[in-house]
């Protein structure tokens, strides 16, 4: 596949965060870009407004005529999240088109670039966006494919004038094994996606294989404690790591820290976003960009101006009466990091949390972990499990999680009931967490808290 010859691109599952980034990239290059997705979202509306044609009906009749026959200048990209019985997907298969996974195309695009790839079961979206911002804001520049919408740039794909590329390396479906980076960051290797990997050992094996694909002379940066034998380690607290944070503190609602490695100390770095876990992400990002000779003062300035990623510890309302934070956390360790940071910032406020579990398999596999972490909040509203690509599993429900919890102040509600509860109770500190469609509550909740 010669990407420079491509003139037409069709994306099956165009509304996904990774797929939409590719859609924008090829549209930016001047290609005709179309796609299918099952659901209208803010992101698909944005793509439509940018001039990308999207069909929301799984029907081959919606596919434009220019995609009816295989051709060297036509590229068909699909996401593994699309059901195998999709009419649109099978149309292209039956017509003899060569179909490419999103990850394969990302591998082709980044092949000739100096690539910084960020992997991990959590932390990768914020860290990759942070790396991209450090490069952009310092004047070094880069292109980037991100797994979320950057709050600084209001997009998930960035275009640079050099050959440096930042990519989020997704472990789902072993997608990251299409990448051969110059610099790789691995933020975490906790058990996840066991529907794909079967067990934690196979997930760990895939991460080790990804680490082995770094180009000769390249650099591996990974969180200290991960079962990896090479590379530079980092930590938010462990001074035995090759790079670590020290003197972490909160002043006037902002996180500050010192970055320390064997060659350099950068004191009094102010974070533009909150959370101890984000201090750790920042240590990883700094260590990665130091290979590109970014000056210390540019690093400090960039981190102070970094506004994070949509749905990653995102402040929705911040008034004297109400604090409302929204986060994508959907794994017990992500929830632990998020809830701990909220409680550290607001130790004297009652924390009300609305949580939507994501996937039946993840809920089943980590039920005890979810119950333990959710017990950290003061009041919990649980929504039904968001199934995404899965069918129900007998006995795996939100009630199952609630029954494992010790917290007294907990209940299961529908989304509308949750809105009604917030309207009547007006919580002083509200957190919404989950990776499903809980984000559809964000605007209504914001309106309720701001307008009563």
From TrEMBL:
<dbReference type="InterPro" id="IPR036565">
    <property type="entry name" value="Mur-like_cat_sf"/>
</dbReference>
<keyword id="KW-0963">Cytoplasm</keyword>
<dbReference type="GO" id="GO:0008360">
    <property type="term" value="P:regulation of cell shape"/>
</dbReference>
<dbReference type="GO" id="GO:0071555">
    <property type="term" value="P:cell wall organization"/>
</dbReference>
<comment type="similarity">
    <text>Belongs to the MurCDEF family.</text>
</comment>
<dbReference type="Pfam" id="PF01225">
    <property type="entry name" value="Mur_ligase"/>
</dbReference>
<keyword id="KW-0131">Cell cycle</keyword>
<dbReference type="InterPro" id="IPR005758">
    <property type="entry name" value="UDP-N-AcMur_Ala_ligase_MurC"/>
</dbReference>
<dbReference type="Pfam" id="PF08245">
    <property type="entry name" value="Mur_ligase_M"/>
</dbReference>
<dbReference type="GO" id="GO:0005524">
    <property type="term" value="F:ATP binding"/>
</dbReference>
<dbReference type="GO" id="GO:0051301">
    <property type="term" value="P:cell division"/>
</dbReference>
<feature type="binding site">
    <location>
        <begin position="120"/>
        <end position="126"/>
    </location>
    <ligand>
        <name>ATP</name>
    </ligand>
</feature>
<dbReference type="InterPro" id="IPR000713">
    <property type="entry name" value="Mur_ligase_N"/>
</dbReference>
<keyword id="KW-0961">Cell wall biogenesis/degradation</keyword>
<feature type="domain" description="Mur ligase N-terminal catalytic">
    <location>
        <begin position="9"/>
        <end position="114"/>
    </location>
</feature>
<keyword id="KW-0547">Nucleotide-binding</keyword>
<comment type="function">
    <text>Cell wall formation.</text>
</comment>
<feature type="domain" description="Mur ligase central">
    <location>
        <begin position="118"/>
        <end position="288"/>
    </location>
</feature>
<feature type="domain" description="Mur ligase C-terminal">
    <location>
        <begin position="311"/>
        <end position="436"/>
    </location>
</feature>
<keyword id="KW-0573">Peptidoglycan synthesis</keyword>
<comment type="pathway">
    <text>Cell wall biogenesis; peptidoglycan biosynthesis.</text>
</comment>
<dbReference type="Pfam" id="PF02875">
    <property type="entry name" value="Mur_ligase_C"/>
</dbReference>
<dbReference type="GO" id="GO:0009252">
    <property type="term" value="P:peptidoglycan biosynthetic process"/>
</dbReference>
<dbReference type="InterPro" id="IPR050061">
    <property type="entry name" value="MurCDEF_pg_biosynth"/>
</dbReference>
<dbReference type="InterPro" id="IPR036615">
    <property type="entry name" value="Mur_ligase_C_dom_sf"/>
</dbReference>
<dbReference type="InterPro" id="IPR004101">
    <property type="entry name" value="Mur_ligase_C"/>
</dbReference>
<protein>
    <recommendedName>
        <fullName>UDP-N-acetylmuramate--L-alanine ligase</fullName>
        <ecNumber>6.3.2.8</ecNumber>
    </recommendedName>
</protein>
<dbReference type="GO" id="GO:0005737">
    <property type="term" value="C:cytoplasm"/>
</dbReference>
<keyword id="KW-0067">ATP-binding</keyword>
<dbReference type="InterPro" id="IPR013221">
    <property type="entry name" value="Mur_ligase_cen"/>
</dbReference>
<keyword id="KW-0132">Cell division</keyword>
<dbReference type="GO" id="GO:0008763">
    <property type="term" value="F:UDP-N-acetylmuramate-L-alanine ligase activity"/>
</dbReference>
<keyword id="KW-0133">Cell shape</keyword>
<keyword id="KW-0436">Ligase</keyword>
């Amino acid at each position: 596949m010669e990407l420079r010859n491509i003139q037409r691109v069709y994306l099956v599952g165009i509304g996904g965060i990774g797929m939409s980034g590719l859609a924008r990239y090829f549209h930016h290059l001047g290609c005709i870009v179309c796609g299918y997705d099952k659901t209208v979202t803010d992101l698909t509306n944005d793509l439509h407004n940018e001039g990308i044609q999207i069909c929301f009906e799984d029907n081959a009749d919606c596919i434009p005529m220019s995609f009816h026959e295989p051709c060297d200048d036509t590229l068909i990209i699909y996401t593994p999240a699309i059901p195998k019985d999709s009419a649109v997907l099978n149309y292209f298969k039956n017509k003899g088109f060569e179909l490419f996974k999103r990850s394969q195309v990302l591998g082709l695009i980044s092949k000739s670039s100096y690539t910084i790839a960020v992997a991990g079961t959590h932390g990768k979206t914020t860290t990759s966006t942070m790396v991209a911002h450090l490069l952009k804001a310092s004047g070094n520049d880069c292109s980037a494919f991100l797994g979320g919408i950057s709050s600084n740039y209001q997009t998930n794909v960035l275009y640079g004038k050099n050959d440096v590329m930042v990519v989020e390396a997704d472990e789902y479906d072993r997608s990251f094994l299409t990448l051969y980076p110059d610099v790789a960051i691995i933020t975490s290797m906790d058990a996840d996606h066991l529907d794909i990997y079967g067990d934690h050992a196979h997930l760990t094996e895939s991460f080790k294989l990804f680490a082995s694909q770094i180009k000769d002379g390249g650099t591996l940066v990974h969180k200290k404690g991960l079962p990896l034998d090479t590379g530079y380690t980092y930590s938010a607290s462990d001074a035995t790591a090759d790079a670590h944070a020290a003197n972490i503190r909160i002043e006037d609602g902002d996180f500050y820290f010192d970055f320390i490695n064997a060659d350099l100390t950068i004191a009094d770095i102010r974070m533009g976003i909150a959370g101890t876990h984000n201090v750790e992400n920042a240590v990883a990002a700094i260590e990665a960009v130091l290979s590109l000779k970014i000056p210390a003062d540019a690093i400090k300035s960039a981190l102070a101006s970094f506004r994070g990623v949509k749905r990653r510890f995102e402040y929705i309302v911040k008034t004297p009466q109400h604090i409302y934070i929204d986060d994508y956390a959907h794994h017990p360790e992500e929830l632990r990091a998020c809830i701990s940071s909220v409680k550290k910032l607001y130790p004297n406020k009652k924390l009300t949390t609305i949580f939507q579990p994501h996937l039946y398999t993840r809920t089943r596999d980590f039920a005890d972990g979810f119950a333990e972490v959710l017990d950290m909040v003061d009041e919990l509203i649980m929504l039904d499990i968001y199934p995404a690509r899965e069918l129900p599993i007998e006995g795996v429900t939100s009630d199952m999680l609630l029954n494992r919890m010790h917290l007294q102040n907990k209940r299961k509600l529908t989304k509308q009931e949750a809105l009604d509860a917030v309207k009547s109770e007006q919580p002083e500190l509200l957190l919404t967490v989950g990776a499903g469609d809980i984000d559809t509550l964000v605007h209504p909740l914001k309106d309720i808290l701001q307008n009563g």
